[in-house]
Amino acid sequence: MPGHAGERSRYTLTDDGDFLRLRWAAGVVIEADDVRSTTAAVTAASPAGKRPLLVNIGLVEAITLAARHLLIEDTCSLRTGVVGVDEVGKVLTAFNYRSATPSRYFTDEAEAIAWLTGKADGGEATSRDAARPSPFRARMEDGILVVEWDRGTSVTTDAAESLVAAAAALNPLRRPPMLALNNDMVSLTREALDVFAERLGVCALAIVGAEGDRTIARYYKQLHAPPYPTRFFASTAAALRWLARMDTSSGGTA
Fold first, then answer.
1. pTM above threshold 0.70
2. Mean pLDDT of 158-169
3. Hey, what domains does the chain have and what are their CATH numbers?
């Protein structure tokens, strides 16, 4: 292997170039502190940006409830391929269907690596995106993160967390400006707005929609105080002109 990114007696983390490999020791009960340790090690091993992560769970004994909660919300990798030796491993990691990071379970390591590196599909999807399709489409266009919400969407916490993960995967090296096309959005929960304000990695947010979306934008800015300029526009062209001028120090009004 190209080299060691980190190593502990309970697990070993190595750098395989295109992806990182996390191998758990047999008989380990994975606890919350283990998850914090591996998350820090994975982040440190990729200073230039997130990479895919291969997790060999082997003969892990169990995963505590606290550790499961942390694993569900972990976004330190672009995607995670979990490799187990049999159906026991699948059952052990079944909670991961709610993961914020795209995740799949495999019993064949070669298949997992092919999926992680984008060379093939396969495995069993276990992330929350697989269990409940996200109500938006996200893409990068000329350096701008464009998010188009499904028409008439009510944005929940799960949808907000899914967007945060998608934004990080599409542009892991910087905080891009974001164009949100609301398409007659019905509502957003307070918790979803908290997620956007605290975790959405963008430098500016332009919201395009109907007149009701102006109220949403004003409410979001005033009550949630996002750390990036936020502004409502009635047209996509006006929003794009504003985003083109924005940087991390510029301002805006809802």
1. no
2. 83
3. 3-129 (3.30.750.24), 136-245 (3.30.750.24)
